[in-house]
Amino acid sequence: MDENKEFNVSAPWSWNARHFVERGCPRMGGAEFLLYSDTRMTGDLEVTCHPYALTNCFGFPQGGRLGPVLALYLDDHFPDFDVQPMDKTDTDGWLNLTLDDEVACIVSLVAGMRLRSGGRVRSFKKEVPRGAPEFYGHHVPDWTPAERPVYPTPKQISMDSLVGWMDRYFALGREDAVTLVRAARQYRDALWVADTDPELAWLFLVSALEVIAGQEALKDTAPSELLQREMPELAAQLLEAGGETHLSAVASRLVPIVKATARFMSCVEKYLPEPPPVRPEEYAQVGWDWTNLKKRVNQVYGYRSARLHGGVPFPSPLCQVPISSGSALVT
After folding, report:
1. Per-residue pLDDT at 149 exceeds 70
2. Which of 95, 112, 87, 257 lies closest to 174 in space, CA to CA?
3. Of 134, 10, 29, whose CA–CA distance to 77 is shortest?
4. pLDDT of residue 325
5. Alpha helix ranges (H) inside the chain
6. What long-range pairs does 41-44 form, CB within 8 A, spacing at least 24?
C-alpha cells in the first residue's frame, strides 16, 4: 500500500484528518456539519485549524431547547484505503463516534457545554465548489429540557474560548488522542444525562477521569514494569510460566484494574484545578486544598464503585438540584 494511503484505524478519525494533511495528501472535497447545544455562542470569530473551521452560526437555543450553535467545516484529505484485516478484534482506538461527533465531544469538554453533532448538511466537491445540501443523514439530537436542571450549563460561551484547542489536540500522540476523545465523550455524555439520570452522569464523570488516570500511569512505564512494581509475586509467576512475552500479554490486560483507586486519586491530585471563580459564602464552601478534597474525592469514587458493582444508589443529595447561595452553587 502506498505510504499516503496507510490508515491507522486505531486513531480518532478527527485526528487522522490532520495526519493526512501533514503527509501531503490532496484535498478530495469538503463537508459541513451542524453542532447542537442548549448553550449559545457569542462573537463572530471563526476558529480555524486546518483542515477544520468552526463558525458561530448564531443558532439561538430557547427555553432550554437545542439550537444549531456551531458549524464545523472539514477539508477532506482522506485517501482511499483498503479494508483492514479482520482476523482478530482490535479495540485500541475504538470510539464508536463519527468524525464530527469526536470534535463535538472535545469542544464540549473545552467549553463545559452540552454539544452533539446532527450530522452533515453540505458536501463540497470539485464539480460543485459552492457545495450541495445534504440533509438525508442529518437529525437534531434528542433532548428533553428540565425546568430545574441538576447541571446548570452556561447560557452562553464566547468563541474566544475555543481558540487553540485543536492545535493542542493535534499535538498529541495517537494513544493520547484516543484517551482524550474517550474521556471527552464520557464528560459530554455526563452533561447530556445529568438532568434525567444524575447517577449515570456521576458514573460517566468518574470514568472520564479514570480514562485519563489509566493513560497517565502508563505514560512512562510499560504495563509489564507496572505489574512487576505493583504485584511482584504475580509478575514473577507469569515470567516463570511463559517468560517476558507472557508477562507483557497478561500485564496489558491486568494493568487497567491494578490499584485503580490509587491511580485515580494520584491523577486528581496532580491535575487539581483552581477553585471555581464564583464561590458561595465561606460556611458553604468545601476547602480546596488537597487535604480537604482528598476525602471527598475518595468518597465519590467509592460511591461510583458501589453503584457500578453492587447496585448501591448514590446518596440522594448528589442527585438533586444543587442549592445556590447568591450567584454561586453550594459546593
Report:
1. yes
2. 95
3. 29
4. 63
5. 13-22, 99-111, 165-170, 174-193, 198-217, 223-230, 232-254, 260-270, 290-310
6. 41/69, 41/70, 41/156, 41/157, 41/158, 41/159, 42/156, 42/157, 42/158, 42/159, 43/158, 43/159, 43/160, 44/159
DSSP state of 84: P
Q: What is the pLDDT of residue 83?
A: 65
Q: 194 near 151, Cβ under 8 Å? A: yes
Q: Cα dihedral sign for 82, 85, 91, 93?
A: negative
- For 127, the 3-state DSSP assignment is coil
CB of 30 within 8 A of CB of 123? yes
| Greatest Cα pair distance in the chain | 66
Cell numbers describing residue 228: 512487576
The DSSP bridge partners found for residue 54 are 47, 72
Radius of gyration (Cα) for the chain, nearest Å?
A: 22
Q: Which of 29-43, 157-171, 277-291 has the lowest mean pLDDT?
A: 277-291
C-alpha cell at 83: 479494508
User: What pTM was estimated for this model as a whole?
Assistant: 0.86
Is 73 in contact with 100 (CB distance < 8 Å)?
A: no
- The answer to whether 78 and 6 have CB atoms below 8 angstroms apart is no
In the chain, the amino acid numbered 315 is: P
Nearest-angstrom CA–CA distance, 283 and 127: 66
What torsion, rounded to 10 degrees, do the Cα atoms 18, 20, 21, 23 define?
130
Q: Measured between alpha carbons, how far is 303 from 301 in angstroms, rounded to an integer?
A: 5
Cβ atoms 240, 232 nearer than 8 A:
no
DSSP state of 274: P
Distances in Å between the Cα of 69 and the Cα atoms of 44, 57, 107 are 12, 6, 12
What does the alpha-carbon distance between residue 75 and residue 107 come to, in Å, rounded to a whole number? Answer: 18
Contact 49, 74 (CB under 8 A): no
